[in-house]
UniProtKB/TrEMBL annotation:
The keyword RNA-binding does not apply. The modification N6-(pyridoxal phosphate)lysine is found at K671. This is Alpha-1,4 glucan phosphorylase. GO terms for molecular function: glycogen phosphorylase activity; pyridoxal phosphate binding. It comes from the Bacteria. One of its GO terms (biological process) is glycogen catabolic process. The lineage of its organism: Bacteria, Pseudomonadati, Pseudomonadota, Gammaproteobacteria, Chromatiales. GO terms for cellular component: cytoplasm.
Amino acid sequence: MKKATSPQAAATGATTEQLKQNIIKHLHSSLGTDVNKASSQAWWRATCAAVNEQVFDGLRNTQRTHYQQDTRALHYFSLEYLMGRLFSNNLHNLGLFEQAKLALAELGIKIADLEDQEEDMALGNGGLGRLAACFIDSLATLNYPAVGYGIHYEHGLFKQSFQDGRQIERPDSWREYANPWEICRPESVQEISVYGYVETVYDLQGLMKKVWHPGRIIKGVPWDIPVVGYNGSSVNVLRLWESRASDFFNWDVFNSGGYIDAARENIEAETISKVLYPNDETDAGKELRLIQQYFFCSCSLKDIIRRYKRAHGDDWSKFPQQVVIQLNDTHPAVAIPELMRILVDRADMNWDDAWALCQQVFAYTNHTLLPEALERWPVRLFEKVLPRHIEIIYEINRRFLAEQVDVLWPGDHAKKRKLSIIEEGDEPMVRMGHLSVVGSFKVNGVAEIHSKLVQSDLFPEMVALWPDKFTNVTNGVTPRRWLKACNPRLSKLLDEKVGTGWPVNLKLLSKLADYADDPQVQDSFMAIKQQNKADLAKEIKKLTRIDIDPTAIFDIQIKRLHEYKRQHLNLLHILALYRRILQNPDYDMVPRVFIFGAKAAPGYKLAKEIIYAINKIADKINNDKRVKNRLKVVFMPNYRVTLAEKLIPAADVSEQISTAGKEASGTGNMKLALNGAVTVGTLDGANIEIAEEVGSDNIAIFGLTVDEVKALHASGYHSHEYYHNNPEIKAVLDWLETDYFTPGKPGELSAIKHSLLEGGDPYLVLADFESYAKAQQLIDSWYRDKAGWAKKAILNTALVGKFTSDRSIEDYVSKVWQLTPCKI
Ligand code: GPU
């Protein structure tokens, strides 16, 4: 008997049919092809176009509502947005994924094949850029008026491949054949200036004025990427600026007969947004990078001011009420003197009023304590590129030192030297962190411990000056992408056990804890993990030709390659296991596959040596019959958002092993725990808060604490002692110097050993080795107890609801932004 169709199912049927017709329509009218001969590319583009009909409706409604209600809005300034693919994310957030899947199936198309047509939008390096992407998803989902501002890089993060185990970089051309999700907005073009000189002039009243005569004018062309909130809430925008030569400038050169010169000027202007700097947490200090920073900050501020003036004219009094700007690290800190310049030089506001306004608008997030990542620009570079801004920075600094520092610490020159925005020396430098703190009304770190260290170690005097300025907002990740879309099997189980509200109320997952001991739920949960692992095993075979046992423990370390993240600690432990197996053919261990994903900055030598070593050692171990499949090592090439979405649902063990005090927060740790992986981790960054949430039975903590790290450094750390006192450490380090892993070429892997011994082991790899190996033993013994492990995995998923980026955004709203949601 035929079941009566529910109204909901009927509506779904209608959308499916509608989608189908729309896809065909776009195949014809947008792609100029038809169902019989369309390529997967064409099908994908036609489907995007069909989906965009709804996206653009939502966008128009949202923008109209925000305009009519004249809402206060957040402006997120970030050099990086690591968006990944938008296809399935947009479908999920619009609630259309199942319908689209069905519609395409009826047309004989597998949706997964279409997903693979899309290039990742990789306009970022790592955690900082991905955080920005999660935040704009949450802002739209929670109906907060917000715009993300950044750069429309022509080339995102390089693509990685391996040649004889060494990293090769190739350019990323994500929009070579156009990107269906972006809209160019020529009506909102901005022009900005760089170079030139500053003239001092006096007006009719005899008042001094500074006039900047720019050396070059550059056009910023905005591209808007709609950001679709979950459940058809708001559709916000990510506005990315592309640089072009200004028409005015071209015309000028052209008229003077310099046709070739004009072409060259074009190329120079276009260079600004050409490529993302691939350095993660290192200050490159290059002129072009400073110009990138200024270019997008200036375009964005002018865009904000244009919108404000449309509603409020020349009355600046409501500006701080309407506008809040979040600086994603110090990369956009030049926005502070730029707003001062606009107010003082262009709007003729007096300094005190302008500064008061500025200090109500900016807030700054610090993402690292690593000294090499704290941005400093040579004063002489600033003088050349932004001659007016350096004057403004000097004036901000003069007043800060006279009116704040000298008042609290009268006559204390050491304090002034330490707090000055200008660092004195042979090459005077602008300290962008200092500038950011002085110019902002709030400063936050990204996990509890990190925020404490920002206050105690990085800016203690600033805290003394402004105790209320400093706060914490622990990072989070969007559960829409990092659970619902990437792990559909687990999502379905969660829908059944805790209801369907969890994607927007992640704390609901805690209901799953009630089932942690339920054998049936344990079986379902682990069966899902097993299926995800089988899928990943196939992917690994496809990408690396390596066969792995899908029932082994999948132990995953995915993140940028950095000494402080200690991929080499993981590697030394792998070598120790391998050695134990060779020394004892019956060595008893649960089979384990160690999986890495990591890009190294192209100029970071040791990081690249570590990649090479992992690949060489993997090669040896994977082909050694004596290992009998107890151990496999896989380095997945070209780690990126799309690969993370395949790895994370299949992880049993999550490696979060940074030296305590070095990882500001981490966010991969959250994604892996959310998908039921058990963390092996140090008490660093957000690991500490994850441990608090899941409890000590469900996480393997090891290693020195922040205080112990400090004490060890203070008392004098000698890595040699660990080398001489621990035979296993000595053996594996010496092994690296032989030609065992690189036949005929001894010493090819010795860079790691040298950095740990002669190099002094700055990240305490050897000091933490023994404790790490013990934690790994614990994981091994835990895994042998099937029910016990299932319980731990379930509790990880159940108890990490805190780490949704929705919670982070609500924290920012209440502690920093003071926004009101605006229902569309
Ligand atoms: N982070 Br600064 C980056 O990914 N890139 C950077 O340039 C800087 C920081 C990361 C932190 O290392 C990581 O701990 C944190 O979770 C992430 O930012 C987001 O806050």
